[in-house]
Specification:
Number of helices: 3
Protein name: Peptidoglycan DD-metalloendopeptidase family protein
CATH topology of the largest domain: Glucose Permease (Domain IIA)
CATH architecture of the largest domain: Distorted Sandwich
Shape: rod-shaped
Strand content: 15-25%
Helix content: 40-55%
Bound molecules: zinc ion
InterPro entries: Cell_wall_metabolism_enzyme (IPR050570), Dup_hybrid_motif (IPR011055), M23ase_b-sheet_dom (IPR016047)
Structural class: alpha+beta
CATH superfamily of the largest domain: Glucose Permease (Domain IIA)
CATH class of the largest domain: Mainly Beta
Keywords: Coiled coil, Membrane, Transmembrane, Transmembrane helix
Length: 343
């Protein structure tokens, strides 16, 4: 292309080939300016478009990488949350197992309380529900042919059967219900145990002040309570106590906690001790060789209070032992139930 500048018009000459004729276009001068201006505008628009496109591409690339980063973060967060959910689900299962173990322990404690009452001789009516529930829990466990419960081992197996989310939610609800029920059962058990503790303490106190102990080591009864032939006069007479055969200077024990209300000696009873217990009960120990306590002493059940002898109206070493209720001699035999702790 060749521009031929003239005052008013421009000639555009096109030479296609050496053997072909030249083509000439005459265009107005103004038109050339307008064309040049249009080309400049187009060029400018192209440059601006290119710059904007390049900027957009850069932004898109930055957004893309940002999106990729965010996506990775979300993936990591989702993965972490999945793991957390799995861990929580496993914890729900563990809690469920713990609830079952606690149920067993609570049943065992109920049984323990029931046994405690039974041992202490306390009315077991109040533990009826505990015994019933204990028996039902043991019935749940399968027994073998001998009726024995199977022993536990460490083997675990079975086909894979993944728990669904609904299963876990249901298990969680059941576990919560189990813990709620256990909570009220434990509270009830606490109340019952407190009452049982008090009853056992009362029973122990009553036992301490009731003359249930044998007063001699030998436990040989040579004469029972009631009518007999008097060993001196050989005439029918009433024997108001029990005679225990023993060697001289064998220990004589207080048969219950109490207070020594008298010690003395006379021709019939010999050296003798009277101990007051409670509920109008007194015990009387006669024919002692030696008295080891003083009037006013507090004595404990099973403590040594004197030595066997044959003082007073006696044919040989023995202990005449009497139990008095409101001043009346009663048969001591029904009271003689307990052994000393050191026996
Ligand atoms: Zn006697």
């Amino acid at each position: 292309m060749k521009l031929n500048w003239k005052p008013k018009k421009l000639t555009l000459v096109i030479i296609p080939d050496a053997n072909q004729s030249v083509v000439r276009f005459r265009i107005p001068h103004l038109f050339a300016y307008i064309a040049a201006a249009c080309l400049s505008v187009l060029l400018l628009i192209s440059i601006i478009t290119y710059v904007m496109h390049a900027s957009t591409l850069k932004k898109a690339s930055a957004l893309q990488s940002k999106l990729t980063g965010a996506n990775q973060q979300w993936s990591a967060a989702l993965n972490s949350k999945d793991k957390a959910i799995e861990q929580l689900q496993n914890e729900v299962i563990q809690l469920s197992q713990q609830a079952e173990q606690m149920k067993t322990q609570v049943e065992e404690m109920k049984k323990f309380e029931s046994d405690l009452k039974s041992i202490a001789g306390i009315d077991a009516n109040t533990t009826g529900t505990a015994v019933a529930s204990t028996s039902s829990s043991t019935q749940d466990k399968p027994a073998d042919a001998d009726g024995k419960l199977p022993t536990l081992d460490s083997g675990i197996g079975g086909s894979p059967n993944p728990a669904s989310q609904e299963d876990i939610i249901k298990l969680g609800e059941q576990t919560l219900a189990s813990f709620t029920a256990l909570n009220s059962e434990v509270k009830e058990l606490q109340t019952n145990l407190t009452a049982t503790k008090q009853k056992v303490a009362d029973k122990q106190q009553l036992l301490r002040i009731t003359p249930t102990l044998w007063p001699t080591t030998t436990k040989v009864v040579t004469s029972t309570f009631g009518y007999r032939t008097d060993p001196f006069t050989h005439r029918p007479s009433f024997h108001s106590g029990i005679d225990f055969g023993a060697r001289e200077n064998d220990p004589v024990y207080a048969t219950a906690d109490g207070k020594v209300v008298s010690t003395g000696s006379d021709m019939f009873h010999g050296n003798n001790i009277v101990i007051e217990h409670s509920k109008g009960l007194r015990t009387w120990y006669m024919h002692l060789n030696k008295i080891l306590v003083n009037k006013g002493d507090s004595v404990e059940k099973g403590s040594s209070i004197g030595l066997v002898g044959s003082t007073g109206r006696s044919t040989g070493p023995h202990l005449h032992y009497e139990v008095l209720k409101n001043g009346e001699s009663i048969d001591p035999k029904p009271y003689l139930k307990a052994n000393r702790k050191d026996e």
